[in-house]
Amino acid sequence: MTTTRELVQDQRDQYAFHDDIVYLHESGRGLTRETVEGISRFKDEPDWMREFRLRAYDHFLARPMPEWGGDLGTIDFDRIVYYRKPSEREEKSWDDVPDQIKATFERLGIPEAERKFLAGVGAQYDSEVVYHSVREELSKIGVVFMGTDQALKEYPDIFRQYFGTVVPPEDNKFAALNSAVWSGGSFVYVPKGVEVPLPLQAYFRINGENTGQFERTLIVVDEGAKVHYIEGCTAPIYATDSLHAAVVEVIALPGSKVRYTTIQNWSNDVYNLVTKRAHAHANSTVEWIDANTGSRLTMKYPSIYLRGEGATADVISVAVAGKGQHQDTGAKAIHLASNTRSRIVSKSVSKDGGRATYRGQLKVSPGAKNVVASVRCDALMLDDLSRSDTYPYIDIQEDDTTMTHEATVGKISGDQVFYLMSRGLTENEATNLIVQGFLEVFTKELPMEYAIEFNRLVKLEMEGSLG
Amino acid sequence: MTATARPSGRAHPERTRPSRRGPTELPFAFADRALVERLSNDGAEPAWLRADRLAAFQRFESLPIEANLLYTPYLDLRGADLMDAVPYGTSAALMPPATSASVPADVAGLIELREDGVATYALAPEAEAAGVVLETFGQALRRDPDGLRAELEGGSSVPDDRLAQLTRAAWSLGVRVVVPDGVRLDRPILVRWLAGAPSRALLTRTLVTLGEGASATLVEELLPSGPEIACAAGETVPQSLFTGTIEAIIARDATFAVASIQEFGPRQVAFQQRHATLGEGATVHWALGQLGSRLVRSRVDNRLVGDRSSVEQVEIVFGSGEQLFDLTSYTRHLGRDTTGDLLAKGALQDEARSFMKGLITIDKTAVGTDSFLGEFGMNLSRKTRAVAIPSLEIDQPDCRRVAHSSSVGPIDEGQVFYLESRGIPDDEARKFIVLGFLEPVVARVPLAEAEQRLRDGLAAKWEAGRAASAA
């Protein structure tokens, strides 16, 4: 109980800094065919990738802006810098990382995190991976964890076999944009039967005003292998809008197990428009553990296509929408094969005029026999300035599916607050505790250090609401 | 070998539905301004009514068929083929009804409309004496034009629905029900629509006004106007269109119950728009049974404006063959301490499909709301498709309860086993379970004869489905 009674200090300025970096290569503002070709040329990519980018660019131009979700009206594609590379080459050793960038990471506490807990670190500073290390023993057993650009050069065969197969450029407008100008992100390959004992972690940041960040992550987990990948984001606060349009592709081959954990805490001027999708093959398990507390607008619906018999999908999605924020999040489970299972749990908190939207899809295709699926959405509204929406789509085309969906919306119970206050907590502490309890379904799935960090983040958000 | 293996689960059976039109294109061609003007001229309508029709037609022209972006992925009008359909004129609506019928003992009033004419009309003397009105729009225009105008212009039709605006622009037949302040009818008013003549389009409105403290029950029966028409091999009977509304204004402390049973023939396309505005303390009960028609697109709107107003809505679907039921409900809470309780259930056989969409909206003013929406499906064959989209939009957290729940599943084999262990044959057990699943609406039909007909209709549909699957 004592830990909850510690006074919460507002630590947000710790994350709100901006270093002046001289960018060695910058694409200039705006998006043209030349921008796309320039990025490909600069990266010295194979022809197929250049053609892939151009095909995506054409589709991006042809595709209208989506109107069904959040307000995208203020995104100005002409003002965005599509590519900048802060240092010349990928660094293997921490000592070689330029001092200024190192200083930024020191302030974010990455090296300590690595020493203590993590199996590997890939930190993204603007658009390029600058630092990567994988523990020696992981390298020895054949686990590949590196920047996506580097992987294109070093593992061209496996890269080409899977890249763009889960999220084709034509999937949606922002997947097309990412496919045209992608840069950075992580590539993970876990060989057959290998279980990665500790989570792999990538730390993402946006720096630089109006820098678009278009990272591309590709995770291939071979038969019977097992991996947990964690990404967390912080970003400096700027006045004008930034765009983050990532694509994450996960391929879980037969019998494998993948968990992908995200803590998204972009600053409140970022548009976070992300396409995350996994293919789950026979008897594999894919888990998306997804938290969204930052950004101005997030539109993100981690998806699992259950393609092989006996595959399992598990999604836990939590969102906190504060002042000026719209969290339009959810999940999709598409059952394409028999004896597949899915479970989606969503928890959202809206306050201070924020808007939390659950948008999800559950589909059982013809031929997928004996599917069991469940969806549970709970929303907590802390005041009547805020808004909460729930939009589930359920489409069942088989006769032996067992599907249940439940959703509730409510406020914090006065009785609960009163009870906790009678035990000596202040009203704010009581509210904090109840919100943390509401989100516990997510927190308990995190590694301990992350759980502590996430609870701090929620406290910070709650503190902000008092000011 | 150039063929590549298909990814598992992608092998769709080839669809054979007509594809010459897109799923969102209108399946008829008769709706134009000239039709609206002709209807108005033929009926020698007053200028205000003509203006009302033309304004509605303008909205019809500018609106998309699905105004709600949430639902555009699930819209499919391809089952309707009405390109040659011809709408009725207004002449019959002006004819006096055949008033000779005596009032059946179990109803307070009865109006039967066969295609474009009034076939039977009766109103109990005590209801008439209490000031209850049951008449066609044609009669109302002669007898009480100002009253009709106030109701139509102040009305309760759906402003952003394209098909509702078409009905408002091009109706040929209207029914008006008025129950004055404090009048409580203990027997229902029966409105029976008989439609289905090939290639005809019948566009109708039903306007209901309940005064303060009034109480009334409406039984709406939607039935085929003639026996099913058989055709030579290779030929199909042209489809028929029916559009119908219930536009209800329910004043303070009034209670309105509706039981509607749609059992049109298999060549019918039905577009239904129902809308209720509830005053303080008012209560509305909907019991809606959907059995017939090739394609149904229905929308029910409840506006809980008055404090402590309350709506209960139960809708069932029993689909077979290639039927598509596209059902949307909008429940909007505006007043304080209002209650919404909505339940939709669908059982599907053969290749039937149901799209059940429901949106609960809680405005900032709606403190103390209790609102629940349930959508439940039972797929009885492998080729069925059940879509459920229960949605919530909440601006006021100070609610008693806001929740929705949805499930789709097969017949519970545990229940079958239980019934079989009691000596009930397998086939009978399954029938009991399915009909029991749909019972909540059946039990709410307040007219014994109509209730029995619904029960028989459901049972017949079950037997037909069994026969089809055995064949």
Which descriptors would you attach to this protein?
heterodimer; A: 467 residues; alpha/beta; 2 domains; ten-stranded mixed sheet; six-stranded parallel beta barrel; 14 helices; 26% helix; globular; disordered N terminus; B: 471 residues; 10 helices
Descriptive notes:
The complex is a heterodimer of chains A (467) and B (471). With 467 residues, chain A is of the alpha/beta class. Chain A has helices at residues 2-5, 12-15, 33-42, 47-62, 99-108, 110-116, 136-140, 148-154, 156-162, 173-181, 414-422, 427-438, 440-443, 448-466, and strands at residues 25-26, 84-85, 120-125, 128-134, 144-147, 186-190, 200-205, 216-221, 226-234, 242-244, 247-252, 257-264, 270-280, 285-292, 297-300, 303-306, 312-321, 326-329, 332-335, 341-350, 355-364, 372-381, 387-396, 402-410. In chain A, helix 4 (47-62) packs antiparallel against helix 10 and helix 8 (148-154) crosses helix 9 (156-162). With 471 residues, chain B is of the alpha/beta class. Chain B has a domain at 80-226 and 238-289. Chain B has ten helices and 20 strands. The radius of gyration of chain B is 22 Å and the shape is globular. In chain B, 52% of the residues are buried. Chain A binds chain B through residues 67-68, 307-309, 335-337, 365-368, 379, 381-384, 386-411, and chain B through 7-13, 69-70, 72-73, 364, 377, 379-399, 401-410. Strand 23 (387-396) of chain A pairs antiparallel with strand 19 (385-394) of chain B.
Helices of chain A, by number, come to 14
List segments of chain A where confidence is low: pLDDT < 50 over at least 5 consecutive residues: 1-14, 113-121, 235-239
Q: Report the average pLDDT across residues of chain A.
A: 82
Q: Cα-atom Rg of chain B, whole angstroms?
A: 22 Å
Oligomer: heterodimer
Largest sheet of chain B: 10 strands, mixed
Q: What's the number of domains of chain A? A: 2
Distance between the termini of chain B: 39 Å
Helix content of chain A: 25-40%
Shape of chain A: globular
The SSE order of chain B reads HHEHEEHEHHHEEEEEEEEEEEEEEEEHHH
Share in β-strands of chain B: 35-45%
Would you tell me the structural class of the helices and strands of chain B? alpha/beta
Radius of gyration of chain A: 22 Å
